[in-house]
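okkk here we go again. third time trying to get the coenzyme A bound version out, last two times i messed up the smiles copy paste (missing a bracket lol). double checked this time i swear
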Amino acid sequence: MRSKSNLSQGYTLRAAKSGDAQKLYEFGKVLLAETSFFLRGPSERARSVDEMRLIIDRFEELPRHLLLTAWFDDQPIGEAVVMGGELERNRYTATVGVGVLQAHTGNGLGRKLMEGLEFFAQQAGLHRLELTVMSRNERAKNLYQSMNYKTEGVRTHSLYIEGTYVDEIVMAKLLETGPK
Ligand SMILES: CC(C)(COP(=O)(O)OP(=O)(O)OC[C@H]1O[C@@H](n2cnc3c(N)ncnc32)[C@H](O)[C@@H]1OP(=O)(O)O)[C@@H](O)C(=O)NCCC(=O)NCCS
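finally!!
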C-alpha cells in the first residue's frame, strides 16, 4: 500500500472537463462494479461516452455543482461530487458523494477529495453538505465522522441490494458560510 505522503507525488485533483468523457466513462464502470456501496449499479451511471460528456457539461454549467476528479498516471482513480440545490429554498444545501478505486484506497485520497469538496462549497457560499451512507459501510462512515459530519437519522430498509434490505444513515455537516 502506498503511504499517505505519496499523495502529493503522483495524484492530481481537478474539476472534470468535457475532454475527460471517455476516461471518466470507463472509470465509472470500474468504480461501480467494484463495490455495492453506491446507490447506482454499473449500468446506471452514464450509458455512453456522450452521456458522460453531457453529465460533465451539466456539472460545469450548474451553479454550486462540482465534479472533482483524482488522477494517477493520467488515469482517473477517484471522484467526488457536490450538487447544490437548484431551487430558491434549498440553494444553500448540497448533496455530496465520493468514490476511490479500490487499488488506491487507504492513501488519504478520499479525505483529500472530501476536503476539496468542502473548499469548493465554502467558496460557493453553501451552508449544508448532506449525504447518505449504507449502514454497513464502515470505511466511509469513519471518513465522514472524522470530518465532522453528524448522523441525523436512519432510513430503514431504504435500499434492496442482492436480496437484502439495507439501511442508509443520513449525515450532514453545517458550514460557516451561507446567505450573506
Ligand atoms: C470510502 C472511500 C471514499 C474512502 O477513501 P480512501 O481514499 O480509502 O480514504 P482515506 O485513505 O482518505 O481515509 C480516510 C478515512 O477513512 C477511514 N478509513 C479508510 N480506510 C479504512 C478502513 N479500511 N477501515 C476503516 N476506516 C477506514 C478512516 O477514518 C480514514 O481516516 P484516517 O486514515 O485518518 O484514519 C473509499 O474507500 C471508497 O471509495 N469506497 C467505495 C465507495 C464508497 O463506499 N463510497 C462512499 C459511498 S457513501
